[in-house]
Amino acid sequence: MRPVDPRLLRHARAARGYLIFTVGLGLTVTLLVLAQAGLLAHALATAARGTGAAALWPALAVLLAVVAARAMAAGGGETVALRAAATVKAELRRKLTAHTLRLGPAWLGGQQTGEIATLATKGLDALDPYFARYLPQLVLAVAVPVAVVARVAAADWISAVVIAVTLPLIPVFAVLVGLHTKARTQRQWRLLATLGGHFLDVVEGLPTLKLFGRAKAQVQVIGEVSEAHRKATMGTLRVAFTSALVLELAAALATALVAVEVGLRLLAGHLGYQTALLVLLLTPEAYLPLRALGAQFHASMEGATAAARACDILDTAPPGQATAGSRLGSGAPVPADLRSSDIMLNEVCVAYPGRDGLALDGVSLAIAPGERITVTGPSGAGKSTLLALLLRFAEPAAGTIEVGGVPLAHLDLAAWRAQIAWVPQHPYLFAGTVAENIALGQPGASRAAIDHAAALAGAAEVIEMLPAGLDTELGERAGRLSAGQRQRVALARAFLRDAPLLLLDEPTAHLDAITAAEILATVETLMADRTVVLVSHGPGWEGQASQTITLHHGQLAALVAT
Questions:
Q1: Is 131:4 a contact under the CB 8 Å cutoff?
Q2: Which segments of 109-134 does DSSP mark as H helices, in order?
Q3: 221 within some domain
Q4: Is this model's pTM higher than 0.70 or not?
Q5: CA dihedral over 391, 490, 527, 372, signed as positive or negative
Q6: Do residues 258 and 369 both lie within one domain?
Q7: Residue 442 to residues 34, 364, 450, 501: CA-CA distances in angstroms?
Q8: Residue with the larger pLDDT of the pair 257 and 318
Q9: How many domains is the chain built from?
């Protein structure tokens, strides 16, 4: 692991100013260490000469002030460091959330959502030891030994040589142990992420597990993963304690070596008493920052590992980013209007990482403004992938998509999606009011417009039955609504958005035949001059579609124009 991950400094600007402050604080503490040792040696030598208490008071007063200043610098530095760590964590969480949204559902579908949630919470919380103790100690581990060796060399070059020769032993041992610790910490983090992801899956699928009698088996699995995480944690701590013993032993032997040679020369009269005291007082200070750095390294490894994972995600390029050559001379994104522009798919292929075969294989299709298109085919035929392409949740592995003759990848992503309304097969309703969920894509919509959209989607009667109507809090995942009721709310959301392109993924799957027919008739009326793409296992518009597309194993099996 690098002493300081440059990616962390790039993604968390609050850390830059803090590091500058840390360097200044470390230099101040270094000077105070030298001053404290010099004053204490002078005081002890003065007392040994028996010159009286009056001669000691000035040195003791200054020494007391230096000790207090050193304590204040250390305590104040940690306080500021903790505040800086809180700022960095907030910045990383904000960036991680925003970037995950930019990466989109296609990327998130290949990840463990439990790991991402664990990373954004407990993982980044572990950055406190990294910023509050490890980084300050890193500065001290560089500045203090160099300053101590220089100061000792000015007083006694032989002792300085002994210290300089033995000092590298501690970092060598620390690196050897640290490499082993890094692997163990990464395994510990992977197990924690696995535990979080599996626990989330179990909680979400608890009804199914209970129905099939597999709940107790999952309890056993969680217990096994928890036990593996416990063993990994204890193993990491065991290595940390062992490394502390090794570093302490190396420092003690090196200090003893200096003490022996200083003592022998002092007895022989080749070294002054005050000089000997200065060397003996400064020698432990040379090794102390390195020993402390080893201990803080282990304490900060979990946070550093989590931060590295967060930086990996932040460095992942979002799909559909506009390329350098996709801009006009003015620097503005290329515009597109779906009310007047054709959408052309030319031999488009889509592949998902980790899956064999292509989700779409050489699909060519033309969608004109105002068309009604029905997409049919068996499960896994590529129907939802086609919608993901239009939503730019997925990108073609081969082939091109053009809108009004302009490559889709050249269009501004936010402006493109602003022209699309989408009703997925399993719509997600958030833990807000019914009105807030309907107005999700149109935050400034009036209450009358929300009521009208709900009525068009057949959700008015459902809303009237709720305790507070449109102001009813739905709770997590809208558990108080049935699947059909959630579908109606999602349709109302799409109707309110009033976009030129409407994408419907099995919009009537959870509705009865009469309601489904009413919804399709409403769509036909509302979208009279707009484009609609309807994915359905059934007949769709039953002959009213402009095109009926049949997909099979990712290929265009049939295309019927009416």
A1: no
A2: 113-118, 124-125, 127-129
A3: yes
A4: no
A5: positive
A6: no
A7: 65, 33, 10, 15
A8: 257
A9: 2
